[in-house]
């Protein structure tokens, strides 16, 4: 169903590793399944009234993971950007990557630049991938370099999959008034129906922004 509003939805995509372990698969198999979930959700988002979708793909703390897993993730991001760009252009999706770029492999930064350039004209959905992202770093950057654009528009709805209930240094500033939805579903199992359920929960909540019920629309 097409909604009249254009929502900014942000997702902490957690649970790839556990999804894989439960199946006796290596963690990287979970990340590959997670990439397929990203594709499903991007395809479903615009039709569900989402104007901007920000996905937490790699936090600045994820560098602490074993080098082999980090390398596999970087390769997956690079391949995914290259292979999805045509599909994104076709669907009118504009892709941006937020976070630090100076620590990423050169092949990934090149793929990011190419995907951002190719999709710059998209108006159906603004997809942001957060890679080597830290909200605290973004806030510090915004204080020191106010025109660097480190802060994003306010988030309306933040979803975290995988059962944990924390923000893990994601969009701390932008979620000041976001509605929070935590679900147990592991990210590789997340689909269009789960997105619709979370958006329905969002619409059923009364957002008052600190005012009284009668002022909710403000
Ligand atoms: C969290 O699961 C997921 C990540 C750290 C990586 C996110 C990557 C993807 C969803 C795959 C590809 C994404 C793109 C944009 C192509 P976890 O490994 O922390 O799972 P666990 O908590 O069960 O260990």
Characterization of the model:
It is a single chain. By secondary structure, the protein is an alpha/beta fold. The protein has a single domain (7-209), classed as Decaprenyl diphosphate synthase-like (Undecaprenyl pyrophosphate synthetase), CATH 3.40.1180.10. The chain has helices at 16-21, 27-45, 67-91, 106-118, 135-144, 192-204; strands at residues 7-12, 50-59, 93-98, 125-133, 157-160, 179-182. It has a six-stranded parallel beta sheet with strand order 3-4-2-1-5-6, with helices on both faces. Helix 4 (106-118) links the parallel strand 3 (93-98) and strand 4 (125-133). Helix 2 (27-45) packs parallel to helix 3 (67-91) and helix 3 runs parallel beside helix 4 (106-118). The longest helix is centred in the middle third of the chain and has 25 residues, at 67-91. It is globular. The two termini are 25 Å apart. The mean pLDDT is 95. The chain binds farnesyl diphosphate. Residues 13-18, 31, 34-35, 38, 55, 57, 62, 73, 76-77, 80, 129, 162, 187 line the site of farnesyl diphosphate.
Summarize the structure.
With 218 residues, the protein is α/β, with parallel strands linked by helices. It has helices at residues 16-21, 27-45, 67-91, 106-118, 135-144, 192-204; strands at residues 7-12, 50-59, 93-98, 125-133, 157-160, 179-182. It has a single domain, classed as Undecaprenyl pyrophosphate synthetase (3-Layer(aba) Sandwich).
Task: Identify the notable features of this structure and list them briefly.
globular, 6-stranded parallel beta sheet, Undecaprenyl pyrophosphate synthetase, 218 residues, alpha/beta, 6 strands
């Amino acid at each position: 169903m097409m909604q009249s509003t254009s929502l900014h939805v942000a997702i902490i995509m957690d649970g790839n590793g556990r999804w894989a372990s439960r199946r006796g698969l290596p963690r990287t198999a979970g990340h590959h399944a997670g990439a397929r979930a990203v594709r499903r959700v991007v395809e479903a988002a615009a039709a569900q009234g989402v104007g901007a979708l920000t996905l937490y793909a790699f936090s600045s703390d994820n560098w602490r993971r074993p080098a082999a897993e980090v390398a596999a993730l970087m390769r997956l991001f690079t391949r995914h950007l290259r292979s999805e760009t045509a599909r994104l252009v076709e669907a009118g999706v504009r892709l941006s990557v937020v976070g630090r770029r100076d620590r990423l492999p050169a092949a990934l930064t090149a793929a990011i630049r190419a995907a951002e350039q190719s999709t710059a004209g998209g108006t159906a959905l603004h997809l942001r991938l957060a890679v080597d992202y830290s909200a605290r770093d973004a806030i510090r950057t915004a204080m020191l370099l106010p025109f660097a654009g480190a802060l994003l528009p306010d988030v309306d709805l933040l979803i975290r999959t995988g059962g944990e209930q924390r923000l893990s240094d994601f969009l701390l500033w932008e979620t000041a008034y976001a509605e929070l939805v935590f679900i147990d579903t592991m990210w590789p199992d997340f689909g269009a129906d789960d997105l619709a359920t979370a958006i329905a929960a969002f619409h059923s909540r009364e957002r008052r922004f600190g005012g009284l019920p009668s002022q909710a629309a403000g």
